[in-house]
Amino acid sequence: MDLTTVLGLILGLAGLIGGYMWDGGHINSLIIPSAMLIVFGGTFGAVAVSFPGSTLAKIPKALGIAFKQVKRDPAATIDEIVDMASVARREGVLALEQRAQEHTNPFLKDGLLMVVDGTDPELTRQILELEMDAIEHQVENMSKVFEAGGGYAPTMGIIGTVMGLIHVLGNLDDPSSLGPAIAVAFTATLYGVMSANLIYLPLANKIKVRGKEMVSEMELMLEGILALQAGENPQLIKKKLNSFLHDKSAKKPIEEDADNGTER
Q1: Cα–Cα dist 145/125, whole Å
Q2: Mind giving me the DSSP string for 163-231?
Q3: Predicted confidence (pLDDT) per residue in 80-95, tens digit
Q4: pTM recorded for the entire structure
Q5: Is residue 49 packed enough to be buried (19+ CB in 10 Å), middle (13-18) or exposed (0-12)?
Q6: Kind and range of the H or E element at 78?
Q7: C-alpha pair distances (Å), 78 with each of 50, 62, 235
Q8: 185 neighbors 161 (Cβ within 8 angstroms)
Q9: Angle CA 120–126–129, to nearest 5
Q10: What crossing angle do the helices spanning 201-229 and 234-241 adopt, rounded to 10°?
């Protein structure tokens, strides 16, 4: 579970509700089933009209990307590729066949098997880049679903408010009830704006960020696979792949070497 996503949602809701109650508001005043039905039902309906069923079916997977914490260790991946490159230089690429077949990462597994099978390097690059493009496109479509929800929700909130005000203006016989009725009507706008800026749009952004992390990891693996296939020196491969590390990760080995009087 990605704690930043969960804690962010909790802190956001706590801040909004806490601030409302701080000034004497009551939580029951925010729970209006009719407004919820209009805003969330209308938003889901608009999103369903906007996207094909195949894209909507991936919503659970998209939520998994946003809420599931995936541990990525690019440094360990680099070390693994360098180790395999050393084995390939000593014993040939066929020595990697068993290791490739048992690898848990499907992208790296596919690449290694193509290397073992003697696939042309250019064809290997093309196939793996197509896989990367497919993943990137899929993640982008997932994020667009939530972005659409973030666009429709405030509008649905306004529609709900207008519908509530129509109901209020149609019942002006009791002036004492106008205040509470108008407050209920504006709750729909609150739902729309709050859900868009606290749920839909942040989730869309988190999915995009996760997608970029996945593609970056694949790019690292692709370059490593191609360098391994070309028979490059393992240490040169390591230097090349270290460029994919984040600044903090990349600077650490250099700083450690500097402390020892050397620099990579």
Answers
A1: 31
A2: HHHHHHHT--S-GGGHHHHHHHHHHHHHHHHHHIIIIIHHHHHHHHHHHHHHHHHHHHHHHHHHHHHTT
A3: 889 988 888 888 888 8
A4: 0.79
A5: exposed
A6: helix 74-91
A7: 41, 28, 11
A8: yes
A9: 135
A10: 160
Measure the CA–CA gap between 110 and 96, rounded to whole angstroms.
Answer: 12
Compute the half-sphere exposure of residue 149: CA atoms within 13 Å on the CB side of its CA: 27
Q: Cα–Cα distance between 13 and 7 in angstroms, integer?
A: 10
Q: How far, in Å, CA of 223 to CA of 237, rounded?
A: 9
Structural contact between residues 145 and 62, judged by C-beta atoms closer than 8 angstroms = yes
Q: Which residues of 196-232 are buried (b: 16+ CB within 10 A; e: fewer)?
A: bebbbbbbbebbbebbeebeebbebbbbbbbbbbeeb
C-alpha separations of 137 from 22, 190, 240 in Å: 45, 33, 27
Please, is 158 exposed, middle or buried when counting C-beta atoms within 10 Å of its C-beta (0-12, 13-18, 19+)?
middle
- Tokens representing 26 are 């009551």
Structure confidence by residue, pLDDT tens digits, 177-216: 666 678 778 888 999 999 999 999 999 999 999 988 888 8
> Rounded CA gap, 226 and 115, in Å?
8
Type of residue at 195: S
The residue among 199, 149, 118 whose CA lies nearest residue 42 is: 149
Half-sphere exposure of 172 (CA within 13 A, CB side): 4
CA distances from 203 to 14, 42, 191 (A): 18, 19, 17
CA–CA distance, 135 with 129 (Å, rounded to integer): 10
Can you count the helices (H) and strands (E) in the chain? Answer: 13, 0
Structure tokens at 213: 């992390």
